[in-house]
Amino acid sequence: MADETDLHVGKRLRRRRRLLGMTQQDLAGQVGVRFQQIQKYECGANRITASRLYELAKAMNISVQYFFDGIPASDAPDAANDADRMEGDILSQKETLELVRAYYRLGERPRKRLLELAKALEADTTNSGVA
Question: Which of 2, 12, 26, 96 has the most CB within a 10 Å radius?
Answer without folding.
Answer: 12
